[in-house]
């Protein structure tokens, strides 16, 4: 795949970039390795100062960075600005909390282990490779980079090939904030070259957010090298609506959950599982609100839904819808691409789904919602858990006992009650099953790429 910026709203190639050759890749790995030796010896206070300066740069650059994001992957400009500011918030969160998250711990009674003192310390691993997707070009990277650098690690980034401007922006960002040269380096390489980077002895771990096949490939290489890996591989998240729910609020949030980021979000609500007692009322509200969305130029503040990021991505969505319709699904809204330049797809609602339809089990990465009618909470959980994914979930219910039951029975890395799934710096983020393993964000995220070292003293 060419490394180039293609405007998804028009299909026009904006700029093409030369991939890094083997000599440049070697130079950048060497820079990151040298910086790791320096960074691990700096204090948390010094790293925090650099982090806050980096956040200042992002906040001051919000409009330019947001326009870059929208140009490269097509999300509405207001959402791009929100992404940039969220990155700054995450950077400040780790600047302020890293030291406490990684504080040494002393055993209360060291005599229990025949010692005068005993406990644990956290230490950085060194160079960590991040293989990142295009759907949140800055946020996906920052949520790894901020904790990694605050822990004293350095980062290498292999970004998606359709967001090279974002990749190069990140290549300079932390150094502008004051971090030692080489603390974070972008590699403009193709996916076939990732394995060689993982295999490099100077690279100590890898994290990937992306497709399940990409995750299997990276995990296989990391396993062969006996290196730590964290994987976030997408999801087909259930959004369950029970009779005690506030249907107007639930339907409004359901629309936002499905079309945020033009529907291209791992944690988007994708399968809307509705109790039979409120199915018709909820679906009527949901469909009306989906039909009312404005599809258009992502640079226009009034736009709700922009184009999909790639032509192939739109083709994938269209194929899933066409397969479902051919097998008897009902199209309650949308169902096709509008007749206009760019890679747009109309907000779509499908009903009458059966297990032989691909959309039932596969992740739909675009503004397409699937609705299911269920008889009770047991059937709701059966439908919710039937896919191979387990990233997040949402449940709308006014019954606290019912809420607790769903929390206990849903196979997912998170359950959001009467809301939509959102990633927060303060909360761990990650999935189970084919959605991956490991966690990002919160204390768990910064500890993933550290060595928990036991210290025993006679």
Structure explained in plain terms:
- With 458 residues, the protein is of the alpha/beta class.
- The chain has 2 domains: 4-233 and 433-457, Aldehyde Dehydrogenase, Chain A, domain 1 (3-Layer(aba) Sandwich), CATH 3.40.605; 237-417, Aldehyde Dehydrogenase, Chain A, domain 2.
- The protein is built from 15 helices and 18 strands.
- The chain has a 7-stranded mixed β-sheet with strand order 12-13-14-11-10-15-16, with helices on both faces. The protein has a 6-stranded mixed β-sheet with strand order 7-6-5-8-9-17, with helices on both faces.
- Strand 6, helix 6 and strand 7 (184-186) form a beta-alpha-beta unit.
- Helix 2 packs antiparallel against helix 4 (77-101), helix 2 (44-60) packs across helix 6 (164-176) and helix 4 runs parallel beside helix 5.
- It is globular.
- The N and C termini lie far apart (58 Å).
């Amino acid at each position: 795949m060419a490394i180039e910026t293609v405007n998804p709203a028009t299909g026009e190639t904006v700029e093409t970039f030369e991939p890094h050759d083997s000599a440049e890749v070697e130079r950048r790995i060497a820079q990151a390795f040298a910086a790791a030796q320096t960074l691990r010896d700096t204090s948390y206070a010094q790293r925090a100062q650099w982090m806050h300066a980096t956040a200042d740069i992002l906040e001051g650059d919000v409009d330019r960075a947001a326009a870059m994001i929208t140009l490269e992957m097509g999300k509405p400009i207001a959402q791009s600005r929100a992404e940039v500011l969220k990155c700054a918030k995450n950077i400040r969160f780790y600047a302020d909390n890293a030291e406490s998250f990684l504080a040494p711990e002393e055993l209360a009674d060291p005599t229990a282990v025949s010692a005068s003192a005993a406990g644990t310390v956290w230490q950085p691993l060194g160079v960590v490779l991040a293989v990142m997707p295009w759907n949140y070009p800055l946020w996906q990277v920052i949520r790894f980079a901020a904790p990694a650098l605050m822990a004293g690690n350095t980062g290498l980034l292999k970004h998606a090939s359709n967001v090279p401007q974002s990749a190069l922006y990140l290549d300079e960002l932390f150094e502008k904030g004051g971090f030692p040269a080489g603390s974070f380096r972008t590699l403009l390489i193709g996916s076939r070259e990732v394995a060689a980077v993982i295999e490099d002895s100077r690279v100590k771990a890898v994290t990937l957010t992306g497709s399940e096949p990409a995750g299997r490939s990276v995990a296989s290489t990391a396993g062969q090298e006996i290196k730590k890996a964290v994987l976030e591989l997408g999801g087909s998240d259930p959004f369950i609506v029970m009779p005690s729910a506030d249907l107007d609020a639930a339907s409004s949030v359901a629309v936002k959950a499905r079309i945020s980021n033009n529907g291209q979000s791992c944690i988007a609500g994708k399968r809307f599982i509705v109790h039979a007692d409120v199915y018709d009322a909820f679906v009527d509200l949901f469909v009306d609100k989906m039909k009312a969305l404005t599809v258009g130029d992502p640079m226009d503040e009034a736009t709700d839904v922009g184009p999909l990021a790639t032509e192939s991505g739109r083709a994938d969505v269209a194929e899933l819808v066409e397969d479902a319709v051919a097998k008897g699904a009902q199209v309650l809204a949308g169902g096709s691409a509008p007749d206009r330049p760019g890679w747009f797809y109309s907000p779509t609602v499908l009903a009458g789904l059966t297990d032989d339809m691909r959309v039932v089990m596969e992740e739909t990465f675009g503004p397409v919602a699937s609705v299911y009618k269920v008889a009770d909470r047991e059937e709701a959980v059966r439908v919710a858990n039937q896919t191979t994914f387990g990233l997040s979930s949402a449940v709308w219910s006014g019954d606290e006992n019912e809420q607790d039951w769903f929390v206990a029975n849903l196979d997912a890395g998170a359950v959001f009650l009467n809301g939509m799934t959102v990633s927060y710096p303060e909360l761990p983020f990650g999935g189970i099953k084919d959605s991956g393993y490991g966690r990002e964000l919160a204390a768990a995220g910064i500890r993933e790429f550290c060595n928990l070292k036991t210290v025993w003293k006679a």
